[in-house]
Amino acid sequence: MTKEEAENGRDDMAIDGAEQANAVPDGFDANYLRIYYGKLFPHADMFKWMSYGNDGKHPACDRSYFGRREFSFTLENDIYIRFQSFNSVIELENSIKEKCPFKIDIGPVYSVDPAKRHAYAGDNVFTPVERELVFDIDITDYDDVRYCCTGADVCLECWPLMTIAIKVIDAALRDDFGFNHILWVYSGRRGVHCWVCDGKARRLTNEQRTAIADYFRVYKGNENSHKKISLPGPVLHPFLARSYTEVLKGFFEAKLLPNQSLLSSEDRYEKILEMIPDASVASELRGRWQENKRASMSKDDINLVRWDQLKSVLQSGKQKTQGIRRCVEEIVFSFTYPRLDMEVSKHMNHLLKAPFCVHPKTGRVCVPIDPNNCDEFDPTTVPTLSQLVEELNREGLRQDAENEWDRTSLGESIKFFRTTFLQPLLKSCKEDIESSYNAKLQQSKNTLSCRTQSNHLCPNVYSHLFNPVINAVEDQN
Amino acid sequence: MEVVQSHRTSSSNNVTVSTLPLYRSAPPLEVRLEDFELFAMDRLRVLKGISDGLGRGKKPEEMEKLVADLWKANMRHPQANEEANKDIISHFVLRLVYCRTEELRKWFLSMETTLFRYRFRFESSEAQRALMSEFKLPYKAVSNAEFESVKDKLGQVARSMGQTLASADAIFYKVPFEEVPELVAGRRVFICKGHAYVAMNQVVSLVVTQFRSYLSKALILTNRKWTSTVREQEKDRLAPIVEALCTSYLGPDYSQPNEAGEISVKDIDHIAKTSFPLCMRHLFEKVREDHHLKHGGRMQLGLFLKGVGLKLDDALAFWKAEFAPKVSAERFDKEYAYNIRHNYGREGKRTDYTPYSCQKIISSTPGVGDHHGCPYRHFSEENLRAALVRMGVSSRAVEDVMDKVRNRHYQLACTLTFEAVHGSSCDAEWFCGIRRHFQASVGIVKYFALWAVPVPVPAH
């Protein structure tokens, strides 16, 4: 950032404290975005991340790797440009500063530089080869189970739905699938994204990604079907059982049920009664609740009282059918279990917004979320663009242009990103590069190497079909 | 190079254990030119039958029987080694036929994999283990000690599927979860730190994944070989046969259907009420009601309209008008027009997309806010009944339809609805033939052709 540019920024606003509230308009502003990209956006960190160690000096580093990653920019006026690629951190940084994109998306690493894709003809030559395993959870997919907000709004009553989604998915990614390098990011308005960056994850095929997404999928309905969650079988799979006992049950009973008043009024409790497959059980409860509009003597929250009644009816020894007992879990799952956008996770070529972008509608920065402390994350206090610019101005002009973010509220997020995610990831990448290099050296010493390239089959496979081995003999008749 | 024998002797008891061919190499046989074609046609009948069964949503037990019956009817030979030869040769010939485009390869891969899966299930466990080692899967059986430590979880997984953990010394294999995507997707295995614990009876999945991945690569290589060298060499012998097999009515038909003629925007309203199948009718009604559709619905309905003859300009006008109360013209041009043009092959890689087949629609997964999919599968019983009544189906016919739905015969249910709505009783044989043809082909577009015209009863 030059001195001149900083001063221009200054001229536009009154330094005087009294007028400061009016000086920096709220939310999003293209000029502030320019300043953001100039001083705050962590270009170098993003480059290091996306290089996965290939920007090093080791002979096994793939110099072409970063250049084969697709980025896409959404510019002012909704102009959208795809297949952007860069060969160095400087190119990346300059392009971002020059174009000032309102949104940056990250795509896969392709087999060749995306900018040169037209030079290659035929199926499967220009094709994604690596891509993080990603997830997108959006609170609008929960509109049928939250009453405090709808659509793009989010508040502290319903945000916890995102928190528990993070807990459930994060635990499974680590414990079940064995992934370690996981980044959770606030999407800037109403949801969260997850980036799984282990090498194993980046090399998953579309079929394997779909399998993981299906492993996580429980909610299968929409307004046309009634029963949206079905948990068949006498017991739950260990993953579902653990999610229920460790996260979902507690959250539902202690927070969601009372905060959203799920059982207090008729139209609300009807929704839950609808999920009970046995009509006589449902009407027994309905009868009870219609009579007692208020839980008579009890000071307890009416929702909790009624939930207890529901549980004792459904789980009583009298209930013969399997489906009835399981209903309690199904209700809890249908309200609280994470709802992933399947399409985002299934395909390698799906583009996803980059962390540290600024959301154009809210001005909030897409900051990382710590999954171990996600209860504490508050979307309403995430730094906004205008807030950050104001903080920069307050600190005054400095010669030292490095690490300006450290003087702002963004500093915490960037430090978190580096220490808990980026550094461990790069360390592991370096180890991988070195060990696979050593393994290859060993292999070529051991065998007479026939140089097979990675996209060829094992040579034995198929060479014979069309030489005279099959002799189609003309019919002798 | 090794020729794959179709029989191998088990060293322990000198009994022949027959195993499936893995189609790793083409055998050095002499084949009569006419057998080339005949063998391939027989195998194609088996594959078509499998495709049919899958489209109807048959359960695994039903598919098992179907595959056995199809194989018996088409591929058996009194002499075991003749049968093996036919098996291998027909597979390789069909590889030539189906390697040429992405769609053909996808279909062939899917059917051959399914065929392999069910044939594998028939094999004895000894034969299965032999096949597993053929694939050189480096998976070790779980040690006793480890088994004890995860036994509870393994039992839980088994019970969650309504099964019990086999006896105390059940064999489990520990494999990286990426190797068994089907089992992971269905939550049919316990996964821990990236390893899936696969029961012996699930081994099928492991092997099938390997088979599939292998065949997928082989098909691409075949295509390259064929186009670069062999087609020219074989232009008088194999090439004409391969061409003939491609266009025979037995194969899946991915050509552009143009038989339904054109329709215009003002026709749609009327046709929707009289002739659309329920899935499209529902989407159409929702567009009218909500002035919006999510992506899945826009694709399913949009491609259908394209298939029945709606031209690009009319399609743009239609969607723009329907969305108008919620989406301004400028926003429509920015956010939706591109995708519509893309569907018509005017943008991007310029693929002229075909409408979805019934199989694809049935196996889709509509989520929150979606209205696509197959109502016979995805609607609740109540909603489906209501929809049928609204279409004018008599209550007796509704019961017949619901019966088909309960047995997962979604396409039959749709056919029955058609008959009920149009009040025509068609010659069953002729009608079924048409329907099977439609299912085998692009599917719903030709289906629409069936709906839009009165069904003639052939003269006897």
From TrEMBL, chain A:
InterPro entries: DNA_primase_S, DNA_primase_ssu_euk/arc. The keyword Transcription applies. Transmembrane segments: none annotated. Keywords: DNA replication, DNA-directed RNA polymerase, Metal-binding, Nucleotidyltransferase, Primosome, Transcription, Transferase. Its EC number is 2.7.7.-. Belongs to the eukaryotic-type primase small subunit family. This is DNA primase. It comes from Hibiscus sabdariffa (roselle).
From TrEMBL, chain B:
Keywords: 4Fe-4S, DNA replication, DNA-binding, Iron, Iron-sulfur, Metal-binding, Primosome. CDD domains: PriL_PriS_Eukaryotic (cd07322). Residues 270-426 form the DNA primase large subunit C-terminal domain. Its cofactor is [4Fe-4S] cluster. It comes from the Eukaryota. Pfam families: DNA_primase_lrg (PF04104), DNA_primase_lrg_N (PF26466). The keyword RNA-binding does not apply. DNA primase is the polymerase that synthesizes small RNA primers for the Okazaki fragments made during discontinuous DNA replication. Belongs to the eukaryotic-type primase large subunit family. This is DNA primase large subunit.
